Amino acid sequence: MLEQDIKKILVSHEEIVVAAKKLGQQLTADYQGKKPIFVGILKGSVPFMAELIKHVDTDIELDFMLVSSYHGGTTSSGVINIIKDIDQDIAGRDILFVEDIIDTGQTLKNLCNLFKERNAASVKIATLLDKPEGRIVDIEADYTCFTIPNEFVVGYGLDYDEYYRNLPYVGVLKEEVYTK
């Protein structure tokens, strides 16, 4: 039923699993003995984070933040609202933000700066998708699974107006769905 609104599939479920496994192996090596905190950005990061952590074979902690910047639209408003902050002190800790997509980069730039102010030992970013054509601030992910074109995508955690998150792949949403 949801598939009728998808113009094309950009990244299949199988491709996501393979990329998460490869990234998990890299994170295992990079964070061996460091006990980092993986901070998932709700709600979109949940499917990717769940897949990713299955492939990380070192001690990690999980935490989540709920940060809003889209407010129901198709582009970031630039206004960052922290609705739920993490639950622990991060001073001296290695932080890895786990994100579904980096588009404008505004949200993550603000979060990275905030965590540096909170004296994190290191702050890095892992993202399922990178959309560099959408970038309006200077920020790059430390770990990227897929670079995608400047199209409006949904699925695998990404939404339009809170819908389509449950698709098992990343697809381009038909324009007529969000221009009604």
From TrEMBL:
Pathway entry: Purine metabolism; IMP biosynthesis via salvage pathway; IMP from hypoxanthine: step 1/1; Purine metabolism; GMP biosynthesis via salvage pathway; GMP from guanine: step 1/1
Any one GO molecular function term: hypoxanthine phosphoribosyltransferase activity
GO cellular component, one term: cytosol
Cofactor: Mg(2+)
Transcription regulation keyword on record: no
Compartment list: Cytoplasm
Keywords, in A-Z order: Cytoplasm, Glycosyltransferase, Magnesium, Metal-binding, Nucleotide-binding, Purine salvage, Transferase
Domain Phosphoribosyltransferase: 10-160
Keyword Metal-binding assigned: yes
Source taxon at top rank: Bacteria
Reported function: Purine salvage pathway enzyme that catalyzes the transfer of the ribosyl-5-phosphate group from 5-phospho-alpha-D-ribose 1-diphosphate (PRPP) to the N9 position of the 6-oxopurines hypoxanthine and guanine to form the corresponding ribonucleotides IMP (inosine 5'-monophosphate) and GMP (guanosine 5'-monophosphate), with the release of PPi.
Family: Belongs to the purine/pyrimidine phosphoribosyltransferase family.
Protein known as: Hypoxanthine phosphoribosyltransferase
Biological source species: Streptococcus cristatus
